[in-house]
Amino acid sequence: MDELHRRHLPDRFRRPRGHARQLSYIRRLVSDPQTLLLVAELDGEVVAIANSGLGATPDIPQKRPRRFVQVRGIVVDARVRRQGVATALMEQVRAWARRHRCREIQLNVYQFNTAARRFCATLGFEPLNTRLVRPLR
Ligand SMILES: CC(C)(COP(=O)(O)OP(=O)(O)OC[C@H]1O[C@@H](n2cnc3c(N)ncnc32)[C@H](O)[C@@H]1OP(=O)(O)O)[C@@H](O)C(=O)NCCC(=O)NCCS
Prior knowledge:
The mean pLDDT is 97. The protein has a domain at 34-122: 3-Layer(aba) Sandwich (Aminopeptidase). The chain has 4 helices and 4 strands; from the N terminus they run ααβββαβα. By secondary structure, the chain is α+β, with helices and mostly antiparallel strands. The two termini are 29 Å apart. Bound molecules: coenzyme A.
């Protein structure tokens, strides 16, 4: 996913000098009860990962309280795509969200990522808002 971001948005993403994600960061995720880390394995090899977290709207008067699950990232190895792996992981995310009495699942997707946008649409995700950017020269 990092490589995909670098390729399409080179002015925003760069190749890290060391590991993109420190071991301490991953340990924190693994032990965080607010986080669901899923992997899919094929022949003992990890071929997909999904990282999700519980969230809630800020407690401000004009917003209705809402609990949700944010999918922070989902990636499937290119060799096993279009076989329902991501759909199966998202089903587990959905079950977890229901257990935590969440009303919805949220996910950010970049405009360039047509494959991910189609995948999301297939699963019933709809755009909620649009983030606009105007470069300054
Ligand atoms: C997006 C991604 C996670 C989908 O994983 P996947 O395991 O291939 O998805 P699934 O097999 O469960 O696809 C389910 C459905 O989504 C749609 N879909 C998935 N990938 C698609 C693609 N490249 N083009 C069009 N539709 C697609 C199809 O309707 C598909 O059903 P079908 O194969 O029967 O037609 C995978 O392409 C990926 O890892 N991409 C790189 C990382 C990334 O972009 N992550 C998402 C960030 S939001």
